[in-house]
Design goal:
Elements lengths: L1 H17 L2 H32 L4 H9 L3 H28 L3 H6 L7 H10 L8 H37 L1
Helix pairs in contact: 1-7, 2-4, 2-6, 3-4
Length: 168
């Protein structure tokens, strides 16, 4: 009886948690899009500066890096920023074209920790009243219920298995 109640509570916790994924993913994508927009301006301006003196992006970074300590530090910072921009732009393209279920399948694209933390900081849980919210709630419920049931079942076998071994 206690195991069933705990499994039910695990299911409810899983359902409540996973039901929030569609809204959280939407907020993450909105923040990601804003960050990509800002980085697009930065990268575009850097590329334009490089082109104005007849250099490609890589050539400009090499030249900047060879211009002393400050230039080398700045070139490294710009290179890292451009890499982050490319990674974020690619993730945004995948996530913007995906529906809520495909977003879950592509959860690896939610990989920018700064954006994930900022989205979580502002996230307000909501009751999902749409189809995908209901599906995610059901999947979360089943996952939580099965996980707690499995854990309790394994613990029961270990505990009661030892008692049975001692009794015989």
């Amino acid at each position: 009886m206690i195991a069933r109640v705990l499994a039910l509570l695990g299911g409810l916790a899983g359902g409540a948690s996973l039901s929030q994924f569609p809204e959280y993913s939407q907020q993450y994508i909105q923040r990601l899009a804003g960050a990509v927009d800002e980085l697009t301006l930065f990268v575009t301006e850097f590329d334009a500066d490089a082109a104005s003196v007849g250099l490609s992006r890589d050539e400009a970074l090499q030249e900047l890096g060879a211009s002393g300590e400050l230039g080398a530090a700045r070139a490294e910072t710009i290179g890292t920023t451009v890499q982050r921009y490319e990674r974020m732009k690619d993730a945004l393209e995948v996530l913007q074209t995906a529906g809520p279920f495909t977003r879950a399948y592509n959860a690896v694209q939610f990989n920018d920790l700064d954006i994930a933390q900022a989205a979580m900081d502002d996230f307000k849980p909501a009751v999902p009243l749409n189809f995908e919210g209901v599906v995610f709630t059901g999947i979360g419920f089943l996952t939580g219920w099965l996980a707690i049931g499995l854990i309790l079942g394994l613990l029961g076998r270990v505990i009661f298995g030892r008692r049975a071994a001692r009794a015989s």
